[in-house]
Write a structure and sequence with these properties.
The chain has helices spanning about 1-35, 40, 70-80, 95-110, 120-130. The chain has about 130 residues and is mostly helical.
Length: about 130
């Protein structure tokens, strides 16, 4: 009985150590991946070009941190889709709540061309088709 309990405790401890190590390893990989990130930053001098409309998600892309009448239009359209942005505001600010609503819309309607929570060309086309007034 005592020996069996000791073995069970040892196995449980080994499992916990294994899980802890597994959780730590992705952080190391993430740091390693962050080191090569400066290489893609070399094309970043072309990054001012997104202001000129070369955003990978499309020219009129909206994302968290943006604001203005385009964001208000997005908010109003999302309110017309049941259960996507219920109770959301129309203040023209692209905040976390709006990001989550856009991601929810993308997931529910199978939109894959834009980053999660980013209102790019593919998401815009799908939302406008579902909320067209006519």
């Amino acid at each position: 009985g005592l020996r069996r309990a000791a073995v069970a405790v040892a196995v449980a401890a080994a499992a916990l150590v294994g899980f802890a190590c597994a959780l730590l390893l992705p952080g190391r990989d993430g740091e390693a991946a962050a080191a090569p990130a400066p290489t893609p930053t070399a094309p970043s001098p072309a990054a001012p070009a997104p202001g000129t409309g070369t955003d990978p998600d499309g020219e009129g892309t909206l994302r968290e941190g943006d604001s203005g009448p385009e964001v208000t239009d997005l908010q109003q359209r999302l309110l017309r889709i049941p259960n996507v942005y219920d109770g959301g505001g129309t203040d023209g600010r692209y905040d976390t709540v709006l990001t989550e609503a856009v991601a929810r819309f993308q997931l529910w309607y199978g939109i894959r061309g834009d980053e999660d929570g980013v209102y790019g060309d593919d998401t815009r086309e799908a939302l406008e088709a579902r909320t067209a007034t006519g």
